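Query structure, 235 tokens:
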């Protein structure tokens, strides 16, 4: 793939830094972090744990990442998260690493926070690039080259002609941020690029798709079949 390598782009960025303990209490932050979270007060950052700030699935994912880091005693590879609810959506790239004291005890953890919002989304909150993991690195794909996207629990798999790649963002987040004139939800687990549909197969009440450059047959759910056929001019 000839795409932007995100870690290379990050070398020119000043990351936010958070130091927190095993109870997820924040000890130190840098000024860059405060500039990323301009709507969050100093009191909110230091008077509650990170798990209290990010409840539900985000908190569970944070515990999972920290547990993985502690078990392996090494840094955790990049993870991309979307934060919404304020006046703006943020797309953040996070990197966790253990910190050791003089006894080599891992009692503090460091999280590097990169605000990559402007690299992947425009001011209208539409994706201009889609981040995927390829060969242990994060690459930025052009939406036009995506064939389809498949849900994988709270994550997704993005298919292009070269293969399928893991994406930290959910199918719902990707659907909301991609051009809805081009991308269509054919099934609860699939979002397809209408420009890359090669063949529509109708067998009785069943509709499946073949995408250009891919041998997979994708199912169109019955409750989406009529709308899909209208969109592609077959009804």
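Result returned for the query:
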């Amino acid at each position: 793939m000839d795409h932007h390598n995100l870690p290379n782009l990050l070398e020119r960025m000043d990351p936010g830094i958070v130091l927190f303990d095993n109870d997820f209490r924040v000890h130190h932050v840098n000024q860059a972090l405060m500039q990323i979270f301009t709507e969050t007060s100093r009191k909110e950052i230091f008077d509650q744990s990170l798990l209290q700030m990010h409840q539900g699935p985000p908190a569970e994912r944070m515990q999972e990442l920290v547990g993985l880091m502690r078990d392996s005693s090494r840094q955790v590879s990049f993870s991309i998260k979307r934060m919404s609810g304020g006046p703006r959506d943020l797309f953040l790239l996070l990197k966790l690493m253990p910190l050791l004291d003089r006894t080599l005890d891992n009692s503090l953890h460091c999280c590097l926070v990169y605000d990559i919002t402007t690299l992947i989304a425009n001011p209208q909150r539409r994706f201009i690039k889609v981040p995927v993991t390829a060969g242990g690195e994060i690459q930025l794909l052009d939406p036009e080259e995506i064939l389809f996207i498949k849900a994988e629990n709270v994550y997704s798999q993005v298919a292009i002609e070269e293969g399928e790649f893991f994406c930290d963002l959910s199918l719902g987040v990707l659907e909301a941020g991609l051009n809805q004139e081009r991308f269509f939800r054919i099934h609860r687990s699939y979002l397809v690029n209408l420009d890359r549909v090669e063949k529509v197969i109708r067998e009785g009440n069943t509709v499946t798709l073949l995408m250009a450059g891919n041998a997979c047959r994708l199912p169109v759910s019955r409750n989406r079949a009529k709308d899909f056929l209208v969109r592609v001019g077959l009804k």
